[in-house]
Amino acid sequence: MRQYFGRKLLIYGLTFFVAVTVNWMIPRFMPGDPVASMVARARISDPEAVAAMQQYYSNLFGFDQPILAQYFNFWGALFAGNFGISIWAYPLPVSEVIMDAVPYSLGLLIPSILLSWFVGNWAGALAARRKILDNTVLPVGYVLTAMPYMWIAILLCWGFGVVFQVLPVAGGYSFALQPDLSWEFVWSLFQHWLLPFVSLFLVALGGWAIGMRNMIIYELEADYSNYLAALGAPHRLIRRYAFRNAVLPQITGLALQLGVLVAGALVTEIVFSYPGLGSLILKAIQNQDFFLLQGTFLFIVLGVLIANFVIDVVYVIVDPRTRAGMAGATT
Amino acid sequence: MTLSVQDLRVYYRTLRGEVKALDGVSFDVADGEILGLAGESGCGKTTLGKSLIRMDGRMKHVGGRVELDGENLPIGDTVKMNPFRFTEVSIIPQYSMSAMNPTRKIGRMVRELLDSRGVTVDLDELHRRLDLVELNRDVLGKYPLELSGGMKQRMVMVISTLLNPSLLIADEITSALDVSTQKAVVTTLKGFRELGFVKSMIFITHDISLTNQLADTIMVMYAGKLAEKAPADAIVNRSRHPYTQLLISSLPEVGVRYAEKKLTGIPGNPPSLLNPPVGCRFQDRCPLAFDKCREEPPAVEVEKDHFVACWKA
Predict the structure, then answer these.
(1) In chain B, what residues touch A318 (CB-CB under 8 Å)?
(2) Cα–Cα distance between B24 and B47 in angstroms, integer?
(3) What residues does the ABC transmembrane type-1 domain cover (chain A) (predicted)?
(4) Are A48 and A182 members of one domain?
């Protein structure tokens, strides 16, 4: 058991290292100079002042050092919990900017991932072996899962925001409100949350339903199902066993899908101008904000890795076969 | 009379038509009798075994009756058949290695299975039977994957016979085992009968020499029909049907060096059961075939309890 988790943690550590390194490299290899754009924003024409500002900012962000030194400084600062200062939101620290956005992203992601997983599995299991349901759930599932995130988001925007005009299409809450704990604000928050949530939920739903349907059919044809049926066990028991065994690959699937879902959420946030990490990434790229980009990527990598680790642990709990693999068979 | 099968016909529905896997088979199995069912693959052995307990979705009961202990078995109706399963008719399947749910501890699976049939687990009895097949009682707290193949097989044997069924169908249960384990399985099955766990048994195998060690009566099937049925020693020593004779002569013998004498099989293949030939189904491969074989030979009792379906017998 300890060896298993030790190995897993090592792999996760390695993944983290590589991912963070790549995240550090990407902004630096992008064309453009963040300091130049910052100076340009200040609209100063005096060349001496420009040179001074340029030097000040380069020094502040450490761009005057060799690239390798920048890299090591980055890791040093990271372990000290320092993500640097945002260029776009200068002089706010990156960690603060991200912390403002994280609740929105998590509030969107966690319910949509979990709910689509549960509802999808339930619908798929129900559809397997019921002709009429199967003939409806399956095509609908294929259509949903084939939809690009931004396309369904735009459709929903257009439908509910423009045609019916029942739900707002942009922002995290009404522009007329200030964040506080009043019912009015919470209601506004909910209204703005609904459409991005539904678009993420729908796209993920189809895939889970199809996967579960196929797995259940496979499990119902498995030898143990046939044996139980031959011994006269009721359908209820056989279906229960089949469901439990069919859910296992779906748990793995969830681990694999997490990255895709996060990416989908980023695109969806941009469509709805939702103030989460997705919108933040867009702004960071537009403003060549190296540190903000690094910070958001780091946060996403961490989130996906942690979620994967949780799923690994869950898998060990629900599937005895992984446990036996760890300890070696006993006789 | 435990089991009586009259003119049983079971066909498989396929896209190309009906495959007549079981085409008019009649036989009886007496109380306490072990019937060995032999024949090459595709002759309808497993179809017969499955028909008696649970047909799969492609199988269709076309005709014939099955009676168990004087009661009609509704084999074509999977719902009505359910009360008989496990309690009256039980099966040790071909796939013992994968017959148990991999994610349930064995003891719990047995309990849930019995609960679903409205029977409470008699733990003492269960333990006694585990001892009998030399399984440690700990296996009930284990997952199937923690058991070896032979252990799983014995566990399935215990589960299948737990409710003392009248008829036990053992379907090719020795095929995946090594010879010494085969012998142990055969001994265990005999023990089950002696202890009254099962009244009678149909032992399906393609291994006619193994059948001889266990069965009282051997029934040889060919292409969905009965070829010959007789007491075990009569089949081995005085078989009358050319197919049975060829089947037995193609067995290797101890002490014979096959480098010098080539071991022969039966040339040719069984006919397609989609469109079986008219008359005797063995006629194309039979060395004794003559004109009369265009007509279907009835199964006649040539001596007591010795039935042969051949014009030459």
Answers:
(1) 103
(2) 13
(3) 102-311
(4) no
Query: What is the Cα–Cα distance from B202 to B215, expressed in whole angstroms?
Result: 9
**Residue numbers of the domain that contains A218:** 88-327
Measured in whole angstroms, the distance separating CA B10 from the mean position of its chain's CA atoms is: 16
**Which residue in the set B83, B103, B160 is minimally distant from A245, CB to CB?**
B103
**Are A241 and B101 in contact (CB < 8 Å)?**
yes
Cα separation, A230 vs A224, in Å, equals 10
What ipTM score was computed for the predicted complex, to two decimals? Answer: 0.90
The reply to whether A212 falls in a domain is yes
pLDDT at A66: 82
Helix or strand or coil: residue B11?
strand
Closest CA to B249 of B232, B270, B266: B266
For residues A220 and A247, membership in a common domain is answered with yes
Nearest to A152 by CA among A184, A199, A211: A199
Q: Is B18 exposed, middle or buried (0-12, 13-18, 19+ CB in 10 A)?
A: middle
Q: Which residues of B touch A329 (CB under 8 A)?
A: 145-146
A325 — pLDDT class (breaks 50, 70, 90): low
Gap from A255 CA to chain B (nearest CA, Å): 20
Listing from the earlier edge strand, what are the strands of the sheet with B3-14? B17-29, B3-14, B59-68, B71-72
- Chain A residues inside the 8 Å CB shell of B113: 228, 231, 233, 237
**Confidence band of A103 (pLDDT split at 50, 70, 90):** confident
B292 neighbors B310 (Cβ within 8 angstroms): no
One-letter amino acid for residue B282 of the chain: F
* Closest Cβ–Cβ partner in B53, B83, B145 for A324: B145
CA closest to A219 among chain B residues: B101
Give me the pLDDT at residue A300, please.
86
Q: Is A3 contained in some domain?
A: no
Residue whose C-alpha is closest to residue A186's, from A174, A199, A196: A174
Which residue from A230, A233, A318 is facing B53, i.e. has the nearest CB?
A230
List the single best residue of A231, A241, A318, A319 to mutate versus B (max B Cβ within 10 A).
Answer: A231
Q: Where are the beta strands (DSSP E) in B162-262?
A: 167-171, 200-204, 217-222, 225-231
Give me the pLDDT at residue A201, please. Answer: 92
Half-sphere CA count of B19, side-chain side, radius 13 A: 16
Res B1: pLDDT = 67
Q: Give yes or no: residues A32 and A118 share one domain.
A: no
Residue A240 included in any domain: yes
| Domain final position from A82, A102, A133 | A82
Same domain, A157 and A218: yes
Shortest alpha-carbon distance between residue B20 and chain A (Å)? 22
Mean pLDDT of chain A: 85
The tens digit of pLDDT for each residue in B220-252 reads 999 999 999 999 999 988 899 999 988 888 887
Rounded to the nearest angstrom, the minimum Cα separation between B290 and chain A is 43
Residues of chain B with pLDDT under 70: 1, 255-256, 258-261
Question: Looking at the structure, do residues A94 and A46 belong to the same domain, yes or no?
Answer: no
pLDDT in tens, A262-305: 778 888 888 888 888 888 888 888 888 888 888 888 888 888 88
**Integer CA distances (angstroms), A241 to A58, A228, A237, B95, B108, in order:** 63, 10, 6, 18, 12
Smallest CA–CA distance from A329 into chain B, residue: B146
Of the residues A82, A109, A132, the one at which a domain ends: A82
